[in-house]
Write a structure and sequence with these properties.
Layout (H helix, E strand, L loop, with lengths): L1 H10 L2 H30 L7 H25 L7 H37 L8 H31 L2 H11 L2 H11 L1 H16 L7 E4 L2 E8 L3 E6 L4 E5 L2 H4 L3 E2 L7 E9 L5 H13 L9 E8 L4 E9 L2 H22 L14
Antiparallel strand pairs: 1-2, 1-5, 2-3, 3-4, 6-8, 7-8
Helix pairs in contact: 2-3, 3-4, 4-5, 5-8, 10-11
């Protein structure tokens, strides 16, 4: 390395020498990193998720910046630069190292998120525990990323003497400034505190089924300031996060995904309820959507010319319950039309001479 630096030093200006040496160290570091990555991928032949695959996926990009900067900083004293130039270059390298390390920490959070997502999958009917953990993880990750970015920016700014002096002066007025900022940002702080409350008390969770503002949908994303609801027809309803603290809403999966569904029928008072009840039992027995918990037919109301029948059925989740209700309506309607068409609601008129 010293011989290479001596040859370059004798032939080129100093700034060209520094640039060439930095490029050389970067190239050697990246080649070594690429070779190591290739060997790891070849030796690790696991299909699907693995911690190694997650590390290679998320940490590859930040290491492309961090490793060259680390080795350039390590070899910097051998560059033969003037002390003033060396001090300036080292300052910029330190700032770039802080930024690269912050980038590495943020991607490490993604590795943790992959592990949790693999351990707690949502692909099952009763996924209450998984939704709890994912909701907390998303909020904690967003807060951690914000803290890492703020700390990294603070460290970089404090490396400048002028900024350090300004910071010392600002500390004397931090009390008044805090009050002013508190009033100005009370809405944002309210959203942040609402997000913190939702993350740990969990009135809503990721993949919860909600009815909000008359819309049915699933919670797709929870951020520090808003919640994204994936509506059944693929629209997105975006609501401020404090809405779920201040306003009432329906949560169909608060404790379990199991749910009851209804189908109503209106027939003549002469209709045979027992025959339709037997048909409902047959339909449910042949349906893969029914979870075998509840399946009954009841007379829920009697009016002057019509009888209201309610089929009450159960399913593992709201999606299957909707499909099961549609299936019950269709099959029982076919039965009524085929076997009791004359017993549908009718208006009776008594004629007197």
């Amino acid at each position: 390395m010293k011989d290479l630096i001596t040859i370059v030093d004798n032939q080129w200006p100093q700034w060209v020498k520094i640039l060439m040496l930095c490029l050389f160290i970067t190239l050697i570091t990246l080649i070594f990193k690429w070779i190591l990555t290739f060997v790891i991928k070849k030796t690790n032949k696991e299909s699907g998720y693995s911690v190694i695959h997650s590390f290679l996926k998320h940490l590859s990009s930040p290491l492309n910046f961090l490793l060259p900067l680390f080795f350039i900083n390590a070899f910097l004293p051998y560059f033969g630069m003037d002390s003033a130039v060396l001090q300036g270059v080292r300052r910029w390298l330190d700032m770039l190292l802080v930024a690269s390390f912050a980038y590495l920490l943020i991607t490490m959070l993604r590795v943790l998120e992959d592990f949790v997502y693999h351990a707690y999958k949502l692909e099952k009917a009763d996924n209450l525990k998984e939704r709890k953990i994912r909701t907390q993880l998303q909020f904690v990750r967003k807060v951690a990323v914000s803290l890492v970015v703020i700390i990294a920016i603070a460290i970089i700014l404090l490396s400048f003497d002028g900024v350090r002096k300004i910071g010392a002066g600002l500390l004397t007025g931090v009390g008044i400034g805090g009050i002013i900022i508190g009033f100005a940002a009370q809405k944002s702080l309210g959203n942040f505190l609402a997000g913190l409350q939702i993350a740990f008390t969990q009135p809503i969770r990721i993949d919860d089924v909600l009815v909000v503002e008359g819309e049915w949908g699933r919670v797709e994303e929870i951020t520090l300031t808003y919640v994204v609801l994936n509506i059944w027809d693929q629209r997105r309803l975006i609501l401020p996060i404090n809405y779920f603290i201040e306003q009432p809403f329906q949560n169909w999966t608060r404790n379990t995904s199991e749910i009851l569904g209804t189908a109503f029928f209106y027939v003549d008072p002469t209709f045979s309820v027992d025959a339709l009840r037997a048909e409902l039992e047959r339909v449910l027995a042949n349906s893969s959507l029914w979870d075998q918990r509840v399946g009954i037919l009841q007379v829920t109301d009697i009016k002057e010319n019509v009888v209201e029948l309610r089929a009450l059925v159960s399913a593992e989740d709201s999606g299957q319950a909707f499909d099961l209700r549609c299936e019950v309506r269709e099959q029982l309607l076919k039965f009524i039309k085929a076997n009791a068409q004359n017993e549908l609601p009718k208006t009776r008129v008594l004629l007197q001479k």
